[in-house]
Write a structure and sequence with these properties.
Shape: globular
Order of helices and strands: EEEHEHHEEEHEEEEEEEHEHEHEE
Structural class: alpha/beta
Largest sheet: 7 strands, mixed
Number of helices: 7
Oligomer: single chain
Length: 286
């Protein structure tokens, strides 16, 4: 399997031809099919794909991990560039999603973080709404029934769903993750892991008992306030997650985006060479 990071918050320093953005997009080639996992926030994934000699028009299927703009607003770009691939996303009611952070007792910073739903209406025939765990191409699974064994990320406390003046904590019923099964083990793709990276791994272990996990790839949502790159919990909380991850039979973890560099450095202290930061332009052969 070959994975190219088309969009992430940072980029490889020596690739001046590539662009970074606050978003996520991976091009995944399994040999049997080409998958676009998330489409970032706009044009960046396509521009970088061209610089990396990857043909988005030949992608067989796209997957949206959840309905936030930094993972899904590149959708119209993808649908124009690729005329045939279906787009997998979790079936759920259409609603708005918000970031909300209290500033004073009666004042909060609030803005929308949901994706533009216009393409969902304009390209209904291209959508594949996932209601249960589904094999979308050979040995590639979109998973929606996610374990609740572990707490969800503390950074979720700033994320809400509903109408602007009647919000509730986002239950993330719009989130899925992806598992690719290869002869020598599994690769798990998390998107942002708002449901918890540990819960996603636990779900994969339950689905494929005793099977080696070659890699976990994606964001772990350990960031609190993106503007200031704060931790989503305490340093002790992040360290505990690292310790719990280390107990699973995982060869490598590759992360970026919403994990945040402060949390990554803490995880690195716990997991050592088992974890790696993957900025835009990274190429993984797993």
């Amino acid at each position: 399997m070959i994975i190219h990071v088309l969009a992430d918050n940072q980029k490889i320093a020596n690739r001046t031809d590539l662009k970074a953005e606050k978003g996520l997009s991976y091009h995944v080639s399994t040999g049997a099919c080409a998958i676009l996992f998330d489409v970032g926030g706009g044009q960046t994934f396509l521009q970088n794909a061209r610089q990396l000699d990857l043909d988005i028009a030949r992608v067989d299927v796209a997957v949206l991990s959840h309905r936030h703009h930094d993972h899904g607003n590149g959708l119209p770009v993808f649908l124009r560039e690729n005329q045939h691939a279906r787009v997998c996303l979790r079936a759920c009611p259409t609603e708005s999603y918000f970031f909300k952070y209290p500033i004073f007792k009666y004042t909060a910073l609030q803005f929308e973080v949901g994706l533009d739903v216009t393409p969902l209406e304009d390209f209904k025939d291209r959508l594949w709404l996932i209601r249960q765990t589904t094999e979308i191409c050979p040995n590639v699974f979109c998973v929606v029934n996610i374990s609740e064994k572990y707490p969800r990320p503390a950074g979720n406390r700033y994320l809400f769903a509903g109408e602007k003046h009647s919000l509730r904590p986002d239950p993330f019923e719009h989130e899925l993750f992806m598992i690719i099964q290869e002869p020598d083990g599994l690769v798990i793709f998390t998107g942002c892991a708002h449901s918890g990276v540990l819960n996603m791994i636990e779900t994969a272990v339950e689905m494929f008992p005793g099977v080696r996990i070659k890699a976990v790839v994606g964001g772990f949502h350990l960031m609190g306030l993106p503007l200031f790159n704060t931790l989503g919990g305490s340093e002790a909380d992040i360290r505990k997650i690292g310790e719990q991850l280390s107990a699973y039979p995982i060869d490598r973890l590759y992360t970026g985006h919403c994990t945040g560099m402060k949390a990554f450095r803490i995880m690195k202290q716990v997991l050592g060479d088992r974890i790696e930061h993957i900025p835009t332009g990274s190429c993984l052969r797993i």
